[in-house]
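Researcher: Good morning. I'm working through a list of sequences from a screen, and I'd like to move beyond sequence-only analysis. For each chain I'm collecting a predicted structure so we can compare shapes side by side. This is the next one on the list. No need for commentary yet; just the structure.
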Amino acid sequence: MRRSIVATAALVAFAVVAAIAPSAAGAYGGGASHDMWQIGISENCNSPTICGDELGGFWGWAEFDRSADGTKTWGDGEFAGCGHSIGGGGGGAGHISFEITSWTIAPGSAGAQTFFVTGEETDSFRGHTETFDVTNDDTGISAVPGHYNTLEVFGFTAPGVAFQAQVAFRAAK
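Model: Good morning. Structure tokens for this chain:
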């Protein structure tokens, strides 16, 4: 008898929780009502021979959204960077946030189709924060889906140096 009361109570509790629990959240970017590009970037340079005093890395993620009819664009991005020196001292970590109010795709400085952004950038480094507007800046980020070893594009490889980018696209349905 005691087992059936416990089992019934457990089922009732489960039913109550299931009834009041929120529905599962969709992935970031919200639904399929608009086009969406998601980009991941990882750049690392740990070779003093190649990078000199510019040792460290830069990592981040960005999203570019476009309404299904193509009339509105928006997005955001979050990036972190870290510099270090040989023998200690110097260096430090920083953070960059982008709030993209609009963007276009056009041939960039390397000739490929890249994102040009307008919006607000906030940079934080060693306790100092600076916010400023950007207008039609070439991000250098390809708008063509795929995985890129960005150094191989220039025919360059070296130990301790890796620049990777992943571009994914999901069309509106």
